[in-house]
Amino acid sequence: MARSLLFLSLLLPTLATAAPAGTPSSNPVAVRRFALLVGVNDGGPGRAKLRYAVTDANAFGQVLEELGGVQRQDRMMLLEGDRKALESALARFKAMVAAGKTPGGRTEALIYYSGHSDEEGLLLHQDRFGYRELRQALEQLPADVRIAILDSCASGTLARSKGGVRRPAFLVDTSTAVRGHAILTSSSEDEVSQESDRIGGSFFTHNLVSGLRGAADATGDGRVTLHEAYQFAFHETLARTERTRAGAQHPAYDIELAGTGELVMTDLRSTSAVLVMDENVEGRLFIRDEPGRLVVELNKLAGRSTELGLQPGRYTVTRESRGASSQAVLTVGDAGRTVLAHTAFVAMQGEMTAMRGGGAPMASAQGPMVEPVARRNYRFINLGLAPKLQTNDLWSGEGEMGNSLSVSLGVATMGRLDGFAMALGANLSSGELHGVQTALGGNVVRDIMEGAQLSVGGNWVSGKAEGLQASVGLNMASQGGRLGQLSVGANVSRASLQGVQMAVGSSWVNGDMDGFQAAVGLSWVSGAMRGVQMSVGTSRVSSIQGAQVSLLNVGGDVRGAQVGLVNIAGKMNGLQLGIINVANNLESGVPVGLLNIVRNGQFHVEAYGNDFNYANLALKVGSRYLYTTLVVGMGAVPDHRGPSHWTTGVGLGGHVPLTERLYFDVDVVSNTLHEWGGALADNRMLHQGRLMVGYAFAPRFAVFAGPTFNVLHATDGEPVTALSRFSKSSDRDVLMWTGVQAGLRL
Predict the structure, then answer these.
(1) Mean pLDDT, residues 300-311 taken together
(2) 274-291 burial: b if 16+ Cβ within 10 Å, else e
(3) Dist. CA 237–CA 195, nearest whole Å
């Protein structure tokens, strides 16, 4: 996916109150930092939808809150918004920054955008927000320091249009008088920038976040400056894209600064959850959290320790060094520093590499000890009743035992399964599953599954999952992958999923999904979906290319169809078929239902009279060209004092705009007549075909008039009576005539 990153930093002279990094100030100044984070995957028609723009915005916002001094109340998020939403967010952000200014203090404002853009500006769904408008919005922020980071397509043109040239590394001058701006892009004007499924985001933002968590702290002072973060992201992005199909990215910049000073972006000393990699650890390190998300990636050199600020929790660290791979598992506590020693790494399965150095892992007096990955052995069969009462434990020696066949009357544990496992209680596998697990209780695979889990209770897999989970209770996949989940209770994937989910209770994907999801109760996808989502109750998805079929369908961005009693969409491209259809933005498509409400469509109240009812009130709602109308009216028959009847009706019609002010509507309305004062029998129906030509004198006021064709009949087959003004005969079964109507539209 072509993406690029623009880094636009407007640093004003008031930064002079801040001392350079590493130089204590004699008069410390209170700093308050604000952040507006925007993520939009959809760049409009003709542009491939991004997968990780929203993910990048969340990741960048999280590191700012954890380590960057941004308080929760000083952070704003805008996800999948259009131009109007961005304008509103910028206005609210400006007011927030203004309210946060204090005498003698310094305010810093940071705007991050991840999504599509072109040579002219940001692309937000169908809208464009120009770079000139962005510059004006930044200049109007009442902050001492202004930083904007744009992770978007084709934004390198903005830096090129400024005529910038390559210069030495910036933000290293010891002076503190700052004037001007800096523009940085993740690629030059003739290159594309890329996002990756492996890292779950764009290369530049991923490396920038890794640097801000401590990987970029070149001085080892526990603080990451803007210069350090950019230099780290520059070199890592170049190194990690050299062998991609799109080719290497060469981040560039255009700087117009008169005097520079260090700007600290993150401070590792502000968090108590720190991972310390000792000086003997070396190699390329990939640090993943318990759900399997890649949190930090860096190339660690021996000779100096490196500290990373992380959320407390369990992590897996994979190391690639000298052609071999090894791994360590550790828990980062909420207090103190967790030390990762080089002796904690063990060779990954399938490699004959021995542990380097021997001995036990080093432990820090200030934090918990690192847990090494256990070594696994192999025996064809495991027989037993429970852990410690099975042949795996009798034969295991050191490390965990892998099997091809396992039979247990209680709970069976194994390191790896390549074959078949059966237990009345549960099967617990700490490693890969290449086969089938069956149990009355539950099946658990801690990492990587290629096979099937069948149980009455529940199935759980943490890591890559390709195969089938079937249970009466719960199916849980921590990382997702390719997987089929079938259950009576619930299916849950805590990350993106490719495959099928079917449940009597609910099916849930916390990420993107490609495939089919069905449930009797609730079907839910928090990210983007390509496929079909069905339920008897409710279907909910952030965005979908396909179809939703449920009693209640709720979608953010729908490209396809919604079929149900009630359909709700943020942006709709396709068909809505239901009793009630609601769309915030109907770009193209048709809502077909009794009541269609479209924010950018029609919503009118009409008051008019015709030759049958002297007073009528109608509500018209629908899309730009199709609408539903609900009508109530009041009328009288000849020789009757006061109103003799009232009517209620519903109709469908089309709206044709001829010019900006002139239009015509054509529709068909069916009305039921109700007796008023005993003048009419309550058994009549009136069907009308109507043509209305209107002229709008103002955006919310129009007049209209036109002919009607009317058909009146009795619902019980009796003659139509007491309406002689429409027919010479008073006992006809059906009356037909032409009429006229005129009124006002609001």
Answers:
(1) 86
(2) bbbbbeebbbebbbbbeb
(3) 11
pLDDT, position 355: 32
Residue 226 — φ and ψ, nearest 5°?
-60, -40
Q: Cβ of 479: how many Cβ atoms within 10 Å?
A: 24
- Confidence class of residue 248 from pLDDT cuts 50, 70 and 90? low
DSSP 173: -
Q: What's the whole-number mean pLDDT along residues 62-71?
A: 90
Query: In the 3-class helix/strand/coil scheme, how is 449-510 assigned residue by residue?
Result: EEEEEEECCEEEECCCEEEEEEECCEEEECCCEEEEEEECCEEEECCCEEEEEEECCEEEEC
- Nearest CA to 373 out of 416, 330, 341 is that of 330
Prediction pTM value: 0.48
| Sequence-ordered list of residues with C-beta below 8 angstroms from that of 401, at least 6 positions apart, any chain | 376, 377, 378, 379, 382, 392, 393, 395, 414, 415
Mapping DSSP onto H, E and C, the string for 412-456 reads EEECEEEEEEEECCEEEECCCECCEEEECCEEEECCCEEEEEEEC
In the chain, the N- to C-terminal Cα span, in Å, equals 47
Residue 314 · residue 325 · CB < 8 Å: no
| SS3 call for 559 | strand
H helices present in 81-161, as ranges:
83-100, 131-139, 156-161
Please give the average per-residue pLDDT across 481-493, as a whole number. 85
What pLDDT is attached to residue 351? 37
Tokens of 495: 């990350």
Angstrom distance (rounded) from CA 518 to CA 527: 16
3-class SS at 709?
strand
| Contact assessment for residue 41 and residue 194, using Cβ atoms and an 8 Å cutoff | no
Average of per-residue pLDDT across 244-262: 54
